Amino acid sequence: MAKTDTFFIRADLNLLNLNTYQQTPIDLGTYVNALEKSVLRIKSVQVSYSDSTGRSIDVLPNDVGVAQYQLLTQSQTDIVLASDNAVIASGRAHHFRESAVAGLATIVTDSNDLNPVTFGTDGYIVAVDTIFLGGAGSLGFQEEPFVSVILECQVETLTTAKAMALALSQQGN
C-alpha cells in the first residue's frame, strides 16, 4: 500500500447552546476516491471545546453545560449511539459552575465518552468523500460552545475492490 506523509485536517462546529443537533460537512474529495483506490487513514483525533474565540466557555451560575460531538461517515439528524456504523469518533465534556455568578467552570470532565486520541497503529480508514462533524450544546452555557477537531491523516492506496467495499459500508442504508 502506497502511503503519503501525515497531514492535518481541521474543522470547527458551533454547537449553538440550544440542545439541538448541529452538523457541518468535512470535504475529503481531495484525498478520497474509491474508484481510483485512494482512501484516507485517520491516525488521531484531537478535540477542543471552547467559545467562538477559542477561549474557555463560561457556564451559568450553579449550572452544568454539556458539549458533545461526533465525527461520522454519514449525515445525521441527531446524536447517534457509539455503536452506530457511521461513528468514527465521539466525545463530550461536562462543564459545571459551582458559584452564584456566571463564569468559568469549576469542574470539567470528559471521561464519559470515547474521546479518542489515537487509533493505534492501524488508524481508522475512510473511503467516503465527505465526513460530518455533528454535535449539540446544552443550555447551561452562558455563550455558544464550539467544538474543534484536528485530524491527523494519511492518504493510501487500496485495491479497487477493497476501496469500493469500504466506501459502500460507510455510506447510508
Protein model, in words:
This protein is mainly beta and 173 residues long. It has one domain. Helix content is 6%, strand content 45%. It has one helix and eleven strands. It has one helix spanning 160-169, and strands spanning 7-14, 22-27, 38-50, 58-59, 63-72, 87-97, 103-104, 107-109, 124-126, 130-137, 146-157. Strands 2-10-5-6-8 form a five-stranded antiparallel β-sheet, with no helix packed on it. Strands 1-11-3-9 form a four-stranded antiparallel β-sheet. The chain is elongated. The protein starts with 6 loop residues before the first strand and ends with a helix. 32% of the residues are buried.
Describe the strand arrangement of the main beta sheet, using strand numbers.
2-10-5-6-8
The portion of residues forming beta strands comes to over 45%
- Which bin fits the share of residues in helices? under 10%
Number of strand elements: 11
